[in-house]
UniProtKB/TrEMBL annotation:
The chain crosses the membrane at residues 269-295, 318-342, 362-384, 414-432, 444-477, 498-522, 733-758, 783-805, 825-846. It is found in: Cell membrane. Its main location: membrane. Residues 60-74 have a biased composition (Polar residues). This is Putative ABC transport system permease protein. One of its GO terms (molecular function) is transmembrane transporter activity. It is a multi-pass membrane protein. Residues 19-238, 499-699 form the MacB-like periplasmic core domain. The keyword Transcription does not apply. InterPro entries: ABC3_permease_C, MacB_PCD, Macrolide_Exporter_MacB.
Length: 860
């Protein structure tokens, strides 16, 4: 009980000092809990949607996806004949059945040719209005479509794009562009995560999406009373045979949930990873806080030991304070996490993904995990200071001698740190010289972990040397005040090293990712310059295929020397060694493709691969299966017959664009794949006549703008910029997440300075008494903060650039051979770290300046 009272008294005696440490715990726990609540809420939203929209049993084509995604490379959904509907109605246990037509291979535009697509990445769906949709949507204005000139739109899309009754829209499909006017607006009864949905009448939907009537993409079946979904599935399967895909509502919902879950898990674990980094940074803050609090209470600890307190009791007292800190910080963090989740939901709403707080899901495991993580991390971080406090002998403490064996432990720490750093550097060296990226990536991960730990452990030794160098450059110009700031930073190298290490972690990751991102852009740009011979690349930015009507418009644009079509066909390959390779892709293109992409070969000529019944394979595949020029490969096209193609070329693996591609001509593929199953073009390449580049560029844009606004024309400059922007957006997102760790590190600097000011109260009073002005005192503290921040930045940037350069060596094995250091970013981060130091010193410097001189001198 005495230990508990002592711990409580000490905890509440240092409320302000504990607050910053608690804030670090709060932020880390909040990020973890916010991530879990947000992803759980999204799962709940999708679960409700899938359960509400799925019929008891769904019948679709055998080659339709399990998730009900109604798209294919032909641009038209897989369908079943209308006769299936009558057969299903005759099955036992069927209450009702209805045929529907849906597709996601569509683009919808308004009268101004602006796309009416979700900005969240959710699909645009066009289909027939049916009874199953009527269960989940309510017509809030107007009427359902009743003829070819009418279309109904969901209320969220109507609000976003300011659509109203009577407005004209165009539905662009692989078959045609269908124009209609808005006849009605339907509102979801469940939460719509962001899809844009348009409804036509059944006959118009069939003609627009598939090109013919008498077919359906799905048959929705409702069970009679007392008939289970599983029993209904058996009955329907018995009636139809096994030529169709028959799924229960549960199976459809689970397939959809699985697809969504995979995407959510990527985001979930990435965000949890950044929360883990914040926790790691927070550990340094907590260690520093308790180390300094223990140091400030050395005499108090000595008195407690002198009157009978054991080492265990002293140790326990400090750990109880840490437990209180962890519990309070974690509890607040759980509440803040729910707020973060709601904020993320609002942010997603601005991006077009509508999530309702009615679906807010806080599982009991979320606060439990948050509390557990926060408390365990805090107590573990405080263990070393607590153990150090327990080792203080009564007489040494009463003399303010501090903890014993500091010099010896410092030497041991330096040796361990050097060994870890050396081992990490060796790991990075092995990674940089590896022959295979897979082997090198393991060594890279090991090297990153060991060098990070090594730099953390060796931090005090680095601080003792590096701070002197920085002081000579930065601080000496400020005269005596600068020298005092230098001595303060060097007074406790362990503390300075730990404070700098907290900032080092975040900045090391920033530097590493900056180097990798810049190198990827530079390498890809270099590859484009060396290999792409076409002037223009036309594609759909949402990954959809280019329909034949758009290709015809492209070929009709003036000023073009050639146009190359490029398709992807799924196939199963049987190689000369007798092995079967499934899920392969044949890249079918026009014979002009070798001019558009200058691909290096290790055997044969790529132009020969476009001869009849010929193909190319890539180097790794050829070695694996013993393929040589003249070998025959059986290619079983998924949507066609089996071809026996002769290998006329083997392409090099030393490339980035189309790495691992196997080529054949479109003419060869057309011999074995029926025209109605032939995939649409994945890309189209175009090359202008000499001197007509600018005119051809404008002509291509004009040819597609009005009728096919979903396709983008890019020249090589555009393509490079797009690549740079995509990687830049990804890096900015990562930097934003890393900002959490940097904020925690800044709190560590603030806490270290604040506690340092308290620790030096008497010294500050004496300096003020002999003439140091308040302005000089504040400057001294600010300079100390700047040099600590710059010290951490140097370590982080140096370490991060080393990691990034090693990672680039592995990327070089995949064809990304250019190493580029983003010096503007590195310089900006370095300068920014100095401002971070200034910012962190504002409150401690202000409090030090306001200190009463006489009271400070009288402080014991």
């Amino acid at each position: 009980m005495t230990v508990l009272k002592t711990s409580l008294r000490n905890f509440f005696a240092h409320k302000g000092r504990m607050a910053l440490s608690a804030t670090a715990v709060l932020l880390s726990v909040a990020f973890v809990c916010g991530t879990l609540v947000f992803t759980d809420t999204m799962n709940t939203t999708f679960d409700k949607l899938f359960q509400a929209t799925a019929s008891d049993v769904t019948v679709s084509a055998k080659n339709a996806s399990d998730t009900g995604e109604t798209t294919s490379r032909t641009g038209m959904p897989p369908v079943v004949p209308a006769s299936v509907l009558d057969e299903v109605r005759g099955a036992g246990g069927v209450k009702s059945a209805e045929g529907t037509v849906f597709s996601t291979s569509v683009t919808v535009v308004d009268a101004d040719k602006d796309k009416l697509s979700p900005s969240s990445g959710a699909p645009t769906i066009v289909g027939s209005w049916n009874g199953n949709d009527a269960r989940t949507m309510e017509i809030s204005s107007g009427t359902a479509p009743k003829g070819p000139d009418q279309v109904m739109v969901d209320a969220d899309t109507a609000d976003k794009h300011h659509l109203k009754l009577g407005d004209e829209i165009g539905v662009i499909t692989a078959v045609e562009t269908h124009h209609a006017r808005v006849s009605g607006i339907a509102t979801f009864k469940v939460t719509n995560p962001g899809a844009a949905i348009f409804y036509l009448d059944t006959k118009t939907a069939q003609q627009t999406l598939v090109g013919r009537t008498g077919v359906y993409t799905n048959v929705n079946v409702t069970a009679a009373q007392g008939v289970t979904d599983d029993r209904l599935k058996q009955n329907v399967t018995a009636a139809l045979g096994h030529g169709y895909k028959v799924q229960t509502a549960k199976e459809v919902a689970e397939a959809n949930q699985k697809g969504v879950q995979s995407s959510l898990n990527v985001m979930k674990y990435a965000m949890l990873g950044f929360a883990g980094i914040a926790f790691l940074v927070g550990i340094f803050l907590i260690i520093n806080t308790f180390s300094m609090l223990v140091a400030q209470r050395t005499r108090e600890i000595g008195l407690m030991r002198a009157i009978g307190s054991s080492r265990k009791q002293i140790n326990r007292s400090v750990l109880i304070e840490a437990l209180l800190l962890g519990v309070i910080g974690s509890a607040l963090g759980v509440g803040a996490g729910v707020g973060i989740a709601i904020g993320l939901m609002k942010l997603m709403g601005l991006m077009g993904m509508h999530l309702s707080t009615d679906d807010l899901t806080v599982a009991w495991t979320t606060p439990a995990l948050g509390l557990l993580l926060g408390v365990v991390v805090t107590v573990l971080a405080a263990y070393l200071p607590a153990r150090r406090a327990g080792k203080v002998s009564p007489m040494a403490a009463l003399r303010d001698a501090g903890a014993p064996a500091d010099a010896r432990s410092g030497a041991v720490r330096a040796v361990i740190g050097l060994l870890l750093t050396g081992a990490g550097c060796y790991g990075l060296y092995v990674a940089a010289t590896a022959d295979k990226a897979k082997t090198g990536s393991g060594w890279l991960g090991l090297g990153v972990v060991l060098t990070l730990i090594g730099f953390v452990v060796i931090g005090p030794l680095l601080a003792a040397g590096l701070v002197r160098v920085l002081a000579a450059i930065i601080l000496r110009v400020f005269g005596p005040v600068g020298r005092m700031a230098e001595r303060n930073a060097l007074r406790n190298p362990r503390r300075t090293g730990a404070t700098g290490a907290a900032l080092m972690i975040g900045l090391a990751l920033v530097a590493c990712l900056s180097v990798v991102g810049s190198s990827m852009v530079a390498s890809a740009t270099d590859q484009l310059d060396k290999t792409v011979g076409a002037d223009f690349i036309i594609q759909d930015d949402n990954g959809k295929e280019i329909n034949a009507r758009a290709v015809h418009a492209i070929k009709g644009a003036p000023g073009l020397e050639r146009v190359t079509e490029y398709k992807l066909l799924d196939a199963t390959l049987t190689t000369p060694d007798g092995r079967v390779s499934e899920d392969e892709t044949i890249n079918a293109a026009d014979p002009t493709y070798p001019k558009d992409l200058r691909t290096e070969t290790v055997a044969g000529s790529l132009a020969d691969a476009y001869k009849p019944d010929s193909m190319s394979v890539f180097e790794g595949f050829a070695k694996k299966h013993g393929i040589k020029l003249g070998s025959t490969v059986a290619v079983d096209f998924k949507d066609g017959r089996t071809a026996r193609l002769t290998v006329r070329a083997i392409t090099s693996d030393d490339t980035v664009i189309d790495k691992g591609a196997m080529y054949a001509s479109i003419a060869t593929a057309a011999r074995y794949v029926p025209a109605d199953r032939m995939p649409l073009d994945d890309l189209v390449f175009a090359t202008a006549e000499d001197g007509q580049e600018a005119a051809a560029y404008k002509a291509l844009k004009a040819a597609l703008h009005d009728d096919f606004p979903q396709y983008t024309v890019r020249d090589q400059t555009d393509y490079k910029q797009e690549l740079k922007d995509q990687i830049g957006q990804m890096l900015n997102l990562i930097y934003g997440l890393l900002a959490l760790a940097i904020i925690v590190a800044v709190l560590g600097v603030v806490n270290t300075l604040a506690l340092s000011v308290v620790e030096r109260t008497r010294e500050i009073g004496l300096m003020r008494a002999i003439g140091l002005s308040r302005r000089q005192l504040r400057r001294m503290i600010r300079l100390e903060s700047v040099v600590i921040a710059v010290f951490g930045a140097l370590l982080g940037l140096g370490l991060g650039m080393g990691w990034g350069a090693t990672a680039q060596k592995l990327l070089a094995l995949e064809g990304l051979k250019v190493l580029e250091i983003p010096w503007p970013t590195i310089t900006g981060v370095f300068i920014g770290s100095a401002f971070v130091g200034l910012f962190a010193a504002l409150v401690p410097a202000f409090r030090a300046g306001r200190m009463n001189v006489l009271k400070a001198i009288a402080t014991d």
